[in-house]
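Slide 14.
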Amino acid sequence: MEPSQRKGILQGQPACIIASSGMLTGGPSRWYAERLLTRPEATVALTGYQDEEAPGRALQQVAAGQRSAVVLGEQTVTVAAKVMTYYLSGHADRAELVGFAQQIRPRMVALVHGDGGARGGLAAALRASGMSVVLPPTGNVLHVPTTRREVVEPVTQALLAHTRQAAPDTTEALALALWEEEGRPVEPVVVEARAVARRWYGAAGTPEEIQAVVAVLAAAPQRFQPIAALAGFYRLLPPDALRQSAPVATPRVEAGSLILARINGTAVVPWFCARVAGGVISGVGPSRSPAHQLVGVRDVVAWVGHWDVPAGAPDDAQQRVIDDWLLQSRTQRSHVSARAVAATMRPGLSYDLATLVAALGQPVDDLAWRLHVARLMVANPRMFTMMPAAHPLHDARWSVRLAAGWEDAREEDVAQPRPDTHAIQQRIDWHLRGASDLYRRSIDPETGDVTLRFRFPLTAEARYGAQLAALRAELPVRVMINEETDHTAVLNIIQLHLRPIVTIKGVPTVAQDARRVTVVCQGAPSAEALAEALAAITARTGFDVEVVPVAAPAGAPGGGPQPAPAKVKHQLVVGTAAADRCAASEARAVTQEVLAEAALQIDLDPTNGFVIVRFPLPHADMQRHAERLAEVVRRTGWAVRVRPHPQHTALEAAARAALPPGTELVLPLSVYTQRQTVEGRYRGHLAAATVQAAQAAFAQATRWQLLLRPVAAGAAEQGDTAAA
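Slide 15: predicted structure.
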């Protein structure tokens, strides 16, 4: 804000100015203090600790009568304004700030400090506690509706009787006096140390008198529990004898209560109250919620019952019990729906939780059933109108009646408590923690039904039968196994068992429907070793393996292709360069004349005497044009070298031509020049004999080997990506 804008504020209507720094060491606060401290009608409030050397500490000394002026920068200011100090802390977390605001109960909360994420989270927590919250941007004018009233001294007539009288000097006497003045509350209340001192000494109390009362409070944490994040504030704990004698005729949100609470302003979850103090509930909820999370009293949606937790039970054990109740709610949901509960009720009458549970024929002290019915009430506001207690901290009873027009709610509109997917995930992890084949699980958010994906689903029941049976017995939902096999995992198992005894050529062909894998191998293993390897593969994957020997060279008995040796280039040379070979220009002209349109490209290597030719399908075209190549050698005296790299479009055309009609070739192909092998995938269903016929046709056309494997239409690519 510019200085001109600050001057406009000082010249305008009375205002509350919040400025930093809080110790008056600089910034806007010093600018305003230099101009306001000389005004008798102004008040300067310091909000927190003041360092010994800070101008703020000197201003406190002026207010205490220890000096008359304060030095701000290079200016000495005579103080005429009223000076006050609020002991607020900047280290309170969100839960403590919400608890403090719940005690003050302001009409409106304006969050003007902090980044957007922090302010938004705190605003959501405050709104969930029933407060009106605004997040005014810079430059915004916030109008707060108020009612004008006559300004009086800040000490009531009741407190004036204590003026100039010594405050109680013992902890018990002070606690009893404050407890009586607060109306004999059953639960703790928040008090501020200096406000307590002013009850006896009034506004004229000296700093020494006020400090004496503060010392009494600070020395008795068993009665005055300090709030760590709010300096100078304490929770007044009533004396034990008085607390025990206070009549408690109704259920209360106290230690041991099981409630439904709104967490983070949205989700309603079961919550066990381990401790309640100052309007803040600490305890545990389901395992998906962090332990020791704080819940405000205004976040209580419904009181369910009292839970006698064994002494010393750890938090995770309590969370597991709550998870079990949530899972049982899924089973109870299938028998008792919201409409079934409504059928037991009469319009215009109110029912408490115990009555509803009894009307369903269930034991009223069964916390699992009480929790299920309470969740039904909360989840269906169109059918049920809940009437919670006006003061849930002291009276947690709530009742429910049928909502107006509840019969108009269609069956599909009636909400049921959603299954606790986090608890289901935990059960899966517990029972199948040793299942290495399990790579993914999915849970239906509406029904809770579980679908497990194993890499080898055909053998999952046999390998994990006991674990699956225990999981199905514990979960009140369906547990299913997806039938899709992870082909990559199958190929890895094949490599593991066959590689030690044979050489696998290319990629095996997997036929999902037939549960069979065809493997092209080279080698002569013993019958016993091969049978043992194939049996191990079948037991692990559920697939039968068919081993096919590598095909013989084209033109040889068997007619199939044979992978080329490693040094392919020596096979693609025709003739030997002569010493008296013709000129390079003549060699190029003769080659172009003889090969004409058959060659894609012609180059020369004059140093070594090679005419370099590129064909679409070099191995096949070299045999197809053998006489022409020999003529080039004879007429030019140059040797001919054929580039071994085929044209990919020619390979694709040959693969399409080899496949039967109706079979779609999936591009791109994988080309391995050194092995003279093409790997491809297809969509469709081909028998093993048809695949072999296509491979033979491709080898005849290209002198290369074609390896094929099927692809599930529209699903394989997505499945592979999801599995990864």
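Speaker note: The chain has 25 helices and 30 strands.
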